[in-house]
Amino acid sequence: MEQTDQHEDLRVTRTRACIEAAFLRLLRTHTFSKLTVQMIASEAMVNKGTFYHHYRDKFDLADQVKRRRLEDFHQLALSVFEQEDPGLRPLGDSIAPMVDAPESCLEDLATLRWVPSNDVDVFDEIRKIVLAQLTRYAERTGTPLPDIESEAWAAAYLALGFPEFRREGRAKTSIGDFAASVHRACGLFM
Amino acid sequence: MEQTDQHEDLRVTRTRACIEAAFLRLLRTHTFSKLTVQMIASEAMVNKGTFYHHYRDKFDLADQVKRRRLEDFHQLALSVFEQEDPGLRPLGDSIAPMVDAPESCLEDLATLRWVPSNDVDVFDEIRKIVLAQLTRYAERTGTPLPDIESEAWAAAYLALGFPEFRREGRAKTSIGDFAASVHRACGLFM
């Protein structure tokens, strides 16, 4: 009996993963307002009944995907900021590869940011995660961060800007190159 | 007869300015999808007939406002980058006050950026204006700009981010402070 339940659970997880991946694929070429449940179901190769078994509508799907990807981002942020010996390695060395990875949750989050939703503000959630981690990091290591609120906002803005920047035909740019360009552009305003 | 025409023209300009200002005010508290022509007409204190005399629908209004504000931005960019003696003054000294002004067209453009539209991509238009001006500036002054495309993208991203940053309860922040925060946040990724 228990084994059947586990089997059921796995199937549910797989079905949801298929639907969510199909949704994210469609968002690369369609705006959210143009997407229908039928299109998402077809792309995921499930029928509409299956879709409605898991989600109330496309807005519910969007909220659930946002929450899941934000949780991935939270875990990544924890793994970067809570290393045992933070002093040994500059923070940037750990953050850059994580953000650079093409399969990074940031790629999806940068897309999901523009999907309207009543419940989840992707940008603000990322800002809050970064702020919490930066605060703990600064306390633990004694790093002075004079305006941590602004810095968290700016870091979230940069992190979500990078996938957009890369999508504009700069596939080979690293987050380091991107940050360097922004760094220089800051000079125009300082 | 000519005087009547001038009078007519002035009235048309004034009516359009009223409707467009009302539209921008409403966008501060409502999403575009929730706005109706009736709401915009009421806010502008004109009747719906007058609205439809000037605009096909709210999408047409959005496109026209975008184009007008982009033209304002273009003129500002020209006035900053085409000063007679560009070498005497660092570029930042002229850009910062222009962008800082609360009545700056950037404030409106940062709002209009999220209004869906088939015709005008606000971000991309700003990027193109900055790119054209940076290119001319670099040529005229011999300033080396190794990756001018990336820098124009980053400058547009920063310029449109600043009004959003200020809206989050940081009304007294200057573009210089904002750029300094982003500048420090870049360090996380470099």
TrEMBL record, chains A, B:
Q: Which ranges of the sequence are annotated as binding DNA?
A: 36-55
Key words of the record? DNA-binding
List GO molecular-function terms, semicolon-separated: DNA binding
- Identify the PROSITE patterns for this entry: HTH_TETR_2
List the Gene3D superfamilies. Answer: Tetracycline Repressor, domain 2
Q: Spell out the InterPro entries in the cross-references.
A: Homeodomain-like_sf, HTH-type_Tx_Regulator, HTH_TetR
The residues forming a coiled coil are none
Q: Which residues form the HTH tetR-type domain?
A: 13-73
Q: What SUPFAM superfamilies does this protein's entry cite?
A: Homeodomain-like
Which PANTHER family did the record assign?
ACREF/ENVCD OPERON REPRESSOR-RELATED, TETR-FAMILY TRANSCRIPTIONAL REGULATOR
Q: What is this protein called?
A: TetR/AcrR family transcriptional regulator
Q: Which organism is it from?
A: Olsenella porci
